[in-house]
Amino acid sequence: MIKPQLCELRSEPFNDPRYLWETKYDGIRIIAGVVQDGFSLQARSGTDKTNLFPELNLETKVSTVLDGELVCYKEGKLEFNGIQHRANRINNVTLASKQYPATYEVFDILMADGQDLQHTPLIKRKEILKAVLVPTDNVRIAEYTDDGVVLFQQVMANHIEGVVGKLKSGNYRQGKREWIKVKAVQSGEFTICGYTQGTGWRASTFGALVLGEFNGTGLTYVGSVGTGFDEAEIGRLFQRMLALGSNCPFGRPPEPATWIKPVIRVAIQYLEFTNDHKLRFPSYKGMIN
Q1: Is 208 contained in some domain?
Q2: What is the maximum alpha-carbon separation in the chain?
Q3: What one-character-per-residue DSSP string does the chain give?
Q4: Tally of domains within the chain
Q5: Is residue 275 part of a domain?
Q6: Do 41 and 175 lie in a common domain?
Q7: Do 248 and 262 share a domain, yes or no?
Q8: Are residues 177 and 219 in the same domain?
Q9: 10-residue stretch averages of pLDDT, the chain, 289 residues long
Q10: 210 plus 83 within the same structural domain
Q11: At residue 205, what are phi and psi to the nearest 5 degrees?
Q12: End of a domain among 156, 183, 210?
């Protein structure tokens, strides 16, 4: 079992001639072993995923061990929900492979033709990868750039999770957090439409705020946020909401909740919208009114 090299979180990207930068794909991390008559796929946990992705056309000029990310694309854009449908599905695999076809974005090579490359500088490993991997319709060599700042701006604009920075001279160190990841978070204003029952020390207040977004015809449900509060803010919000009891503003309740008049605006930080227009990884940042 190979333990993939990992990342530590940083707050912002930077430009340094010693580093290269790649897109953070947010898919399924896969170590692939490729030989003349086939290949195997190992997840980060060590689980064998080979039989779950029959559509992959993985070919190299010599036997190799590769590192990369399995992702799904829809109309040229990364589709996080798609790869989630594939992650652990063991039934109807062939149908799933047609509905949510996977692409393997390869960004590193650990062995080639029996030679261990883990102590070879990353930039040289990139050259070897390009020389031995045969790109296909669903196997790609992941692109990289020296300009981490511009790449970060691009992933922000395209609602992609973030970027990864890597030392060009770096060795491959299994299980070590020596790469750098920067997440591209977004923020917006939403309306509290209700709240869910709290548990534990929050049993007397609320668990999460049910959020809506105003559009041309009314409110659209965008999910719930249950993190980002301190104790004082929970009390302040709960007292305001207690005086605003009302019916569900969405017509049909999207989840069990106590509904309130939708007048309190809040700032929310989040990673992106999912395909069904729900906030992904939302965090409360404060009341606006």
Answers
A1: yes
A2: 70
A3: -----EEEE-SS----TTEEEEEE--SEEEEEEEETTEEEEEETTS-B-GGG-TT---EESS-EEEEEEEEEEETTEE-HHHHHHHTT--SSHHHHHHHS-EEEEEEEEEEETTEE-TTS-HHHHHHHHHHHEE-BTTEEEPPEES-HHHHHHHHHHTT--EEEEEETTPPP-TT-EEEEEEE--EEEEEEEEEEPPP-GGGTTS-S-EEEEEE-SSSEEEEEEE--S--HHHHHHHHHHHHTTB---TTSS-SSS-EEB-S--EEEEEESEE-TTS-EES-EEEEE--
A4: 2
A5: yes
A6: yes
A7: yes
A8: no
A9: 94 95 93 94 94 95 98 87 84 92 98 98 98 96 97 87 96 97 88 95 95 88 93 93 92 92 92 86 88
A10: no
A11: -125, -105
A12: 183
Pair 265, 279 in one domain: yes
Q: What local confidence, expressed as pLDDT, does residue 6 receive? A: 97
- For residue 110, the model assigns a pLDDT of 98
Domain that holds residue 202: 186-287
pLDDT at 88: 82
Say yes or no: 134 and 43 in one domain: yes
Q: Which of 183, 202, 225 is the last residue of a domain?
A: 183
CB neighbours of 278 closer than 8 A, spacing ≥ 6? 221, 222, 223
Asked, for residue 1, whether it belongs to a domain, the answer is no
CA triple 28-89-66, angle to 5 deg: 30
134 lies in the same domain as 260: no
Give the pLDDT confidence score for residue 48 in this predicted structure: 95
